[in-house]
Amino acid sequence: MNARILPYVLILPVTIFLCVFFLYPFVLVAQQAFGTGSGFSLENFREVVSYWKFPISLKNTLLLAAAVVPIQLALALLMATMVNRMQKGRDLVLYIWTIPLGISDLAAGLIWLAIFEQSGFLNTMMSGLGIVDRPVNLLSYQHPGVVFLAIALAEIWRATAIMLVILVAGIGLIPKEYYEAAEVFGASPWKRFLRITLPMLRPSLQTALVLRVILAFEIFAVVAALGGTLFPVLMGETYAYQFDLLNNGAAAAMALIILAISIAFTLVILRILRVPKGATI
C-alpha cells in the first residue's frame, strides 16, 4: 500500500467511530436545543435558565467541583510521589489505590449511603460512643452541610484514582538523572518536587485536570444516591427534563450548557498549564 495513504487508512476506523457515536449525536442534540416548531430559537435555553432550580444546580455543581478537584489533585500528587519512591510492593499498593476505578458511580454512592444513612455505620458508631441518644437522619434537608460532605467524600474516594494513574505515568517519564543532579547540589526533597517534578509533570497535570474537571461537571449518580433532590446539580436537572418532564429540547439545552462550561474550564486549564512549544522531557 502507498505509504502516503496508509496513515489515512489507519485512522479511518476511529474517524468513522467518532462520527457515528459522537458527531452525529451532537448534531441531533444541537437540533433539539435550538430547534422548535417555528425553526431556530433560543426558547429552550430561556426556559432552562429562567427555571428557579437552575442557579441552585449551577452553584452546587461549581461548588462541588471547586471543593473536590483541588483535594483530589493534592492527594493524587502525594500518592503518585509515594508510589514512585517505593522499592517494594509498588504494584500492590497502586492496585489497591485504584480499586475504586472499577466501581460504578452509583455503586460508590450506595457504599457511602450505607455509611451516612440513619441505620448506617456512622450512626451506629456515634450511638456506641454515646455521642447521640438515637440515630440521626444525616442526609436530610436539616443537614445540608452533611449532604454536601457525604457527596464530596464519595467523589474524592471514587475518582482520585483517575488522576493518580495519569500522574504516576507522568512521574515515571521524568529522567532519574535530574533528581540525582539536584541531590548532588544539595536540593531538598521539597525543592526537588517544586523545581523538577511539578514543571516536568505539566503535560500530565493538564490531562488529569481537564479529564477530572469535565467529569466533575457531569456528576449525577453519586448525588442521586446520597442527596437525591436535596442537592440539585446540572446533570440531575438534565435527567429530570429528559425522563421526568419529557422535555427533550430543554434537556438538550442543559446538555449544551454543561458542554460550554466544560469547554470554558478546559481552555482555562490549558492556558494556565500550557506547555512551551517544542518542550520535551
TrEMBL record:
Q: Pfam families attached here?
A: BPD_transp_1
Keywords, sorted A to Z: Membrane, Transmembrane, Transmembrane helix, Transport
Q: The ABC transmembrane type-1 domain covers which part of the protein?
A: 58-269
Q: Does the keyword 4Fe-4S apply?
A: no
Instruction: Name its species.
Output: Celeribacter arenosi
Official protein name in the record = Sugar ABC transporter permease
| Membrane topology recorded in Swiss-Prot or TrEMBL | Multi-pass membrane protein
Which locations, inside or outside the cell, does it occupy?
A: Cell membrane
Question: Among its keywords, does the record have Phosphoprotein?
Answer: no
Q: Which family does it belong to?
A: Belongs to the binding-protein-dependent transport system permease family.
Which superkingdom heads the taxonomic lineage of this protein's source? Bacteria
> Which residues are listed as membrane-spanning?
5-27, 61-80, 92-115, 146-174, 209-231, 251-273
PANTHER family referenced in this protein's UniProt entry, alphabetically? GLUCOSE IMPORT SYSTEM PERMEASE PROTEIN GLCT, TREHALOSE TRANSPORT SYSTEM PERMEASE PROTEIN SUGA
SUPFAM superfamilies, from UniProt? MetI-like
